[in-house]
């Protein structure tokens, strides 16, 4: 098995798309990520995975906080912006959720305080205790086999 084959295999797992945000010295930073999961319901904990070479690594360590912004189907441009693929021509308005910057219009905003980290391979897993959430009704942005997708209910797909 080579790295490319492994990458293609992992691309067969469809995921939602998130932007992780944090703030250090008044400067908001963000990165697109699909390596996010719920860890525990009691207490409420989530996990994000950050590449050791990513600029966000030190920023999250320094701030001790992060937010997970679960993107809607209408926010592909934000995903591409924070992945460094396509810079937006407009400023991105940030709101606050328990003092952490979040992106308006997301399906969910999850504000967290880092409670632990674990280095494994070329990534660090940041465990976050959830301080607050904000939800909005919309369709999710999905990523599958290297492409953005939208979600359709199965019953609609069967009738088509």
UniProtKB/TrEMBL annotation:
<dbReference type="InterPro" id="IPR012349">
    <property type="entry name" value="Split_barrel_FMN-bd"/>
</dbReference>
<dbReference type="InterPro" id="IPR002563">
    <property type="entry name" value="Flavin_Rdtase-like_dom"/>
</dbReference>
<feature type="domain" description="Flavin reductase like">
    <location>
        <begin position="10"/>
        <end position="150"/>
    </location>
</feature>
<protein>
    <submittedName>
        <fullName>Flavin reductase</fullName>
    </submittedName>
</protein>
<dbReference type="InterPro" id="IPR050268">
    <property type="entry name" value="NADH-dep_flavin_reductase"/>
</dbReference>
<dbReference type="GO" id="GO:0010181">
    <property type="term" value="F:FMN binding"/>
</dbReference>
<dbReference type="GO" id="GO:0042602">
    <property type="term" value="F:riboflavin reductase (NADPH) activity"/>
</dbReference>
<dbReference type="Pfam" id="PF01613">
    <property type="entry name" value="Flavin_Reduct"/>
</dbReference>
<keyword id="KW-0560">Oxidoreductase</keyword>
